[in-house]
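User: Could you walk me through two proteins back to back? I'd like the raw sequence and the structure tokens for each, with a short line separating them so I can tell where one ends and the next begins.

Assistant: Of course. Protein one, sequence then structure:
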Amino acid sequence: QVQLAESGGGLVQPGRSLRLSCATSGIIFSINAMGWYRQAPGKERELVATITTGRRINYADSVKERFTISRDIATKTVYLQMNSLKPEDTAVYYCNFRNSVRDYWGQGIQVTVSS
């Protein structure tokens, strides 16, 4: 059974940094893309960043120049380096792996940006 596990979240002051990681257990065949999404209270889940196996990267406008997504194909791990964090980045962050058949989701990890 495939499981995705996020780590690295927590409480941080505005302007500081966090690095999220997402590791997989189990086998996912023919991954097309890995990514991060987030959901703030009262809002819908939104894309943060995605990276394809061809290394095409897409960021939400709100995180460009501040967040960096990277991945290790061999270990099926995806990372999100978040710099210059703002209170509006507060949300539950979910990692996502996608192949031609389905999406796989982690359980989510809380990131809170507050002074």
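----
Protein two, same layout:
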Amino acid sequence: QVQLVESGGGLVQAGGSLRLSCAASGRTDSCDVVGWFHQPPGKERATSDFVAYIRWSNDYTYYADFVKGRFTISRDSNTVILQMNSLKTEDTGLYYCYCDPFIGGRNWGQGTQVTVSS
């Protein structure tokens, strides 16, 4: 089992930046990828939007089209960072960190709120 704790959310104006962190602990070597989902207001987590992931073994990264050029995912030891620049109001919502293990179901963090004001 992997424990994921997000931090770094907050309120920012459109065009600004935020840096989200996901601290992973426990069986981190069981993760194939660690990444982020975005749950906009009014949507369920089950239908939230994929944002980006980083492969634990080689730091390969993959992004959703709507964040390419604006967001950067990286890893520092057992912490996964999501640097969010040029934020838009539609980026508002809950951001969840997740781990997809090689075996078994997805692990989720508790989420961190990002609010982008116009």
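The two ends are 40 Å apart (CA to CA).

Let me know if you want the two compared in more detail.
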